[in-house]
Amino acid sequence: MGIDAWGMTDGYVDAHGVRHETSRKTRAAIFQAMGIEGTRRKGRSSPPEAPVRVIRSGRSLPLKAEAELILEDGTVIRITRALPPDLPLGYHDLRPCDGGPSVRLIVAPRRCHLPKGLRTWGWAIQLYAARTAASWGIGDLVDLRRLASWSAHELGAGLLMLNPLHAATPIVPQDPSPYFPSSRRYRNLLYLRIEEVPGARKARGQIKRLANAGKALNGKRRIDRDRIFRLKMKALEFLWRRFRGDSKFERYRKEQGSSLTQFATFCVLAERFGPGWPNWPRAYRHPGTRAVAEVVTKEAGRVAFHEWVQWLLDDQLKRAGAELPLMQDLPIGFDPGGADAWAWQDLLASGVMVGAPPDEFSANGQNWGLPPFVPHKLRAVAYQPFIETIRATLRHGGGLRIDHVMGLFRLFWIPDGMTPAQGAYVHYAPDELMGIVALESHRAGAVVVGEDLGTVEKSMQKQLAAHDILSYRLVWFERSSPARYRRLALAAVTNHDLPTVAGLWNGTDLQEQQRLNLQPNVEGLQEIRCRLQRTTKLGEDAPVEQVVERAYRLLAKAPSAVLMATLDDALAVAERPNMPGTTFERPNWSLALPVSLESLERKPLPRKIGSILNRTPR
């Protein structure tokens, strides 16, 4: 497949082996989205040299001219002919002595962090669904801390894998999808436990009324995010008025710097003008305008409030992570009208969205509604947005799951007004991106997993494995026995987008798809169920809890480094968290577990699953 200097392919081969040529119309639209039409007309056939180099530890690099190397810690080294091979890992600056442009030099390890002989297991959690009696209608970070402690000390779990906790725009209606965040650098205030906010104990009387209203929402399975948002916002605003400062808060603000201020400023503007910054008054649509600078000054108190909320979230997440390593999930993109898109709009393609070409699961292809970074523009800023995003998702965590990890290699761009079939792949620099992931992984001491389901080229899988990025294997998708799964993998029975064991076994998942007119792959689902029945050696009418137990005994045969079980399976829940292809037709990302965490801890099936998957005798 041909790839031009800007990363665009001249065609793609679909799931049926049919080649689709990139049309002139598509090529023109993508060049326009990249903002390079004028550049190409002036005769430039490739992007300008970017001021960044990513090299691997131990590698020497020849230089054209004498230079100064300013290490990340401030140390200055005079370089004459070549970079020394023993440079420390990190982000350094190379300044040629002849006055040439400086280069950001990123020295990365050859592989991601991966403990030798890693063999562990954990729960895959939709945190919003995991409530206790103290929750305000939604699972929060203190509930996470409780679950982490119980899983570690009672069951011997080694980690917890979370749904994305990233920030939504702080207004109503609240978007329920964790994979369509306003920002991937900051977190959603719905996950705060109000009673642990500084000052809440002294204000117990004033908080009690709000807490009672919040706890009353636990009686409904469907999570009312808008109601919860209003209650928690009232409580936070009350406590902020009583807040008298904290040196830890000031250190957090200093550490986060302008990124935090910019995010908080976006929140203030969203409260004033509503969702979707492209719809705001023109003076506020770009973070660099004078009008926005005036907001930072005139609304300093409200900006500080949103910074304070993020500090509270950071502290509560840190305490949860102290109980058990947390593997956080990184979505492939963000809301085009959200905070990250506002902050980085100059680096994003305009007039295209990311998606997938037609395949056997989606005859029409998919448009995910996510804006992509322009490859050469991202390199021109030395990958700073990518670095901030990876670092934020690894913060206080022991792992990282990269959704649609093929996005490190290429993304499928669909121009506005065109069908997914008319799109084209645009390639990035995977070795550089994986180098940054490896560097941040080592700094965080975190394992990295790449969600590599679907059509993935073998060459890409080899590159991921060479970087110690674990593959992602699901029993539902694998025809071979788990005993033959890869060692360098995270293995699970199912995930949030697929049927639970109960939903598959009872046929309720298929019935729901048919009721929603989703044209389900009936034959495929029946094949998975037959395979499950055959491998578990159970009768057609076996009870669901027995099927769940046998399914996880099957998974336990996998030699994979990490095994994951869902809390939905631990409670034999029939509904999956999300049904792809639906938005308003069902309560995606909004169904709580049918019982509280207190009740879950007393049930035998979760303990059985833990005992089955705990391969390290205690």
Walkthrough of the structure:
The chain is an alpha/beta fold. It has a domain at 58-108. 37% of the residues lie in helices and 16% in strands. Strands 20-17-14-11-10-23-22-21 form an eight-stranded parallel beta sheet. The chain has a five-stranded mixed beta sheet with strand order 3-9-8-5-6. Strands 16-15-18-19 form a four-stranded antiparallel beta sheet. Helix 3 (141-155) runs parallel beside helix 8, helix 16 packs across helix 17 and helix 17 packs parallel to helix 20 (604-613).
What is the CA-atom radius of gyration, in angstroms? 25 Å
Give, in spatial order, the strands making up the sheet with the most strands: 20-17-14-11-10-23-22-21
Q: Count the E strands.
A: 23
What structural class do the secondary elements suggest?
alpha/beta
Overall mean pLDDT: 95
Q: What coarse outline follows from CA principal-axis ratios? A: globular
SS summary, helix count: 20
Percent in strands: 15-25%
Low-confidence stretches: 39-43
Distance between the termini: 52 Å
Largest sheet: 8 strands, parallel
